[in-house]
Amino acid sequence: MGRDYxxxxxxxGEVKALESEKRLxxxxxxxxxxxxxxxxxxxxxxxELQDEHGLDVPVLLALAWAVVQHRAPAEFDRCLxxxxxxxxxxxxxxxxxxxxxxxxxxxxxxxxxxxxELAAERVQLRILEEAFGTLPVVASTxxxxxxxxxxxxxxxxxxxxxxxxxxxxxxxACLAANVPSEILE
Length: 185
Prior knowledge:
With 185 residues, the chain is mostly helical. Helices cover 76% and strands 0% of the residues. The two termini are 36 Å apart.
């Protein structure tokens, strides 16, 4: 008798999906941010949303991670409070200094400020990961792109300015495209 390769292929696909899901569940926010940020469209959209609309790149990536982790979105705004407070007192001042230092023509000073800003963003991501980690995991039948769009739009509505809508929708689509679909749906 011949072997049913359709069933074998399906089982292998299920095993790969479970392995991917386990890897993603074990992936911390910092690792997620490092993996997602350089992906097509993500970096440019995050920076545009930050520079043109006042949104925070670490928060955008943390919200995406929380959605991928299936955390309860009703509590997301509460989780952002401490991280945005930290960013206001540490990250944003370092960013402002770095931006003012760029035209000074001192590359080592500029790079030192850039490194300090990144270190502060890493602390901010740790604050966000701890806060989101306290939330319950919830099941959802909505596609990840829909969930991401809703969460990012809510954040932008509360904290952003200007015409950010199209960029937020594109960012959600880019982030959703960068995470294996078998994990998300």
